[in-house]
């Protein structure tokens, strides 16, 4: 289970991360603001977001999650000091799995994740791009073919030989694909992405 912790107070974020890694089989990452969230989402492809509502930015956690749901498939648990009915209603509209009131402690984190875990692990659509979102990247036929070959762990040279083009051409295609997916142009970034999104490429 991959979990992204969106919390602008680093001490709280690290405490939550420690509780998660100590009690669950999970991969975690912390994002302190919306810029770190934007970088983390395509890299981690989280199944679950633990998101603070008050991020001390123009965009609060509810608005951020709402926008992310247009692109990614994940569940969310809100963590916040807000207890107003209006805030709870706004959060509820996004159908979170839970709503934890600060101050957070070990039992509340454990209970929230323990109850959410079977729902998350039983949903194969989570931790991926949303089904319709793949279309918006407008991959060319060649790019889709390259993604399929990367999925099958073909190297740049092997892909070039299969498509009867130069490795330099394949490198250009890979770079363009990374730009469309907002991935860092690194050797394993596309392989990791294709493995996470195999169902969308089939």
Order of helices and strands: EHEHEHEEHEHEHHHHHH
Q: Largest beta sheet: what is the strand line-up?
A: 2-1-3-5-6
Task: Give the tally of β-strands.
Answer: 7
Which stretches are low in confidence, meaning pLDDT under 50 for 5 or more residues running?
Answer: none
Percent strand equals: 5-15%
The count of helical stretches stands at 11
Derived structural class: alpha/beta
Brief write-up:
With 202 residues, the chain is of the alpha/beta class. Helices cover 53% and strands 14% of the residues.
Give a structural overview:
The chain has helices at residues 10-23, 34-44, 61-68, 85-92, 106-121, 133-136, 141-151, 156-163, 167-181, 189-196, 198-201, and strands at residues 2-6, 27-31, 48-52, 72-73, 75-80, 98-101, 128-129. By secondary structure, it is α/β, with parallel strands linked by helices. The protein has a five-stranded parallel β-sheet with strand order 2-1-3-5-6, sandwiched between helices. A two-stranded antiparallel ribbon has the order 4-7. The longest helix has 16 residues, at 106-121. The two termini are 23 Å apart.
